[in-house]
Specification:
transmembrane helix; mainly alpha; disordered C terminus; 453 residues; antiport
Length: 453
């Protein structure tokens, strides 16, 4: 018993060591949106805040297909490292960059069309007018962000995430400085331009780092002669289901933004405050999920089933502890947190208070479900989890949100109770899927598929 406990403690330590830089890097990415909203709310007011919020939601909803889809690469790289195959690591890295360009182009066209027809979201004329150019600039900024995420998979998959953390944090500071000056001179559109410039810096900085750091030389020089097209196809085949997993959840929350916008501008501003807080903790939980996926993938590469189970369980436990702390923070410090976004607007503050309290309750469900997706991605189980997230968010969460908010008259509170229900269903289904699937996974069948690409 004691050796087993000692091994499990080691898994917790290793997952935590890998998680912290990834969590901070993930937090830095989402805090760019939070910084935009903080500065827009303080400098421009509630209506521009709502417009920026819905623009961010729509753009991130479409971009999430690419953001989530590329995360499979770190697990594949970790498997290749576990097999001692630097040539495969190199091909995965180059294929990921090409996949990022392709995803940026395709998803950019979709976002542009949505910006052109933004009136379909049924927002007020003022919000629609403000949001349309904001969406177009954020769409352009998604391209360097996708490239950053693609290159970051090499660092994360090889357990070298610290520099990406530093790059993201420095970009966060750059974004805040740019926002201050650009919002002052250009208004709302200045915040979008600041985000674009900060994301370009991120992509350039991580590319230079990987090219110059001696640690990556063995992986960058060992290219091999196999073509990249089959590997790009593999990344898209395994990654797009993962991307749609993110899309179904983020789309549910983005459509919730649209529903809340139907209720009024005060409700929209309050929702944006609460969703920013929940998105911050969610993105931090995705860092734990990414670490779990990497460690599970490495154990798969070594064909070590007990290590796969320990790595997955460690990720679940770390997420539960972290999100429990976030729950306590939301429930006890909601007034102070809301005050960071907006002051002297009693109605928005009152609505936001209720929503932040509900957000506190769904922290545990949100953390468990995103880690469930991560560890399942580590064992290359992506199709069934995609179906489960579709059911949780589009069959449970969104219909229930609409019924509670409109026919039952619960306003924005009803929307958030529906989201809570969907997250809870997702958490339960994905956790069951991992522990039910694990004993049946044939590790010797996962490894050759990767090796022969």
């Amino acid at each position: 018993m004691y050796p087993l406990l000692r091994l499990f403690r080691q898994d917790l330590r290793e997952t935590l060591r890998l998680s912290v830089p990834i969590v901070i890097a993930q937090l830095g990415v989402v805090l760019m949106g939070v910084t935009d909203n903080l500065m827009i709310g303080r400098m421009l007011g509630a209506v521009p805040l709502g417009a920026a919020g819905i623009a961010n939601s729509v753009t991130f909803m479409i971009g999430s297909i690419g953001f989530g889809g590329l995360l499979i690469v770190s697990a594949l790289i970790s498997q290749a490292q576990g097999k001692g195959n630097p040539g495969e690591v190199n091909r995965l890295y180059r294929a990921a960059i090409r996949a990022a360009w392709l995803l940026g182009l395709v998803l950019g066209v979709v976002c542009t069309l949505m910006a052109w027809q933004f009136q379909i979201f049924g927002q007020t004329p003022t919000v629609t007018r403000m949001a349309r150019p904001f969406v177009l600039i954020l769409t352009l900024s998604n391209v360097p962000l996708l490239l950053f995420i693609a290159i970051r998979q090499l660092c994360d998959g090889l357990s070298r995430p610290k520099v990406t953390m530093y790059i993201t944090l420095s970009a966060l500071g750059l974004n805040a400085i740019l926002n201050y000056f650009l919002i002052h001179h250009l208004g709302l559109i200045g915040a979008a331009i600041g985000t674009l410039l900060a994301r370009c810096y991120m992509a350039l900085a991580i590319w230079i780092y990987v090219k110059r750091d001696s640690f990556f030389i063995p992986y960058l020089k060992t290219q091999g002669t196999l073509p990249l097209t089959p590997l790009i196809t593999k990344i898209l085949r395994l990654g797009l289901p993962s991307g749609f997993q993110f899309f179904f959840e983020i789309a549910a929350f983005s459509l919730a933004v649209i529903m809340v916008g139907w209720l009024g501008e005060a409700q929209l501003a309050a929702h944006q405050i609460a969703i920013n807080m929940a998105s911050t903790t969610y993105m931090m939980a995705t860092g734990i999920a990414a670490a779990g996926s990497i460690r599970v993938g490495n154990a798969v590469g070594r064909r070590n089933r007990p290590a796969v189970q320990r790595a997955g369980t460690a990720a679940f436990l770390l997420s539960i502890v972290f999100m429990a702390g976030c729950c306590v923070l939301f429930l006890t410090a909601h007034e102070w947190l809301i005050g960071l976004y907006i002051r002297d607007n009693v109605r928005v503050t009152a609505i936001a208070t209720t929503l932040v309290i509900i957000a506190g309750f769904f922290q545990l469900s949100d953390g468990v479900q995103v880690v469930g997706l991560g560890v399942l991605r580590g064992i290359a189980d992506v199709n069934v989890p995609t179906l489960l997230t579709l059911i949780a968010y589009w069959v449970v969460a969104l219909p229930l949100s609409y019924v509670l908010a409109f026919p039952l008259g619960m306003d924005a509170t009803g929307v958030w109770i529906g989201l809570l229900a969907g997250l809870t269903v997702s958490a339960a289904l994905l956790t069951y899927r991992f522990y039910h699937k694990l004993p049946r996974v044939k590790l010797d069948e996962i490894e050759p598929e990767v090796a022969h690409v």
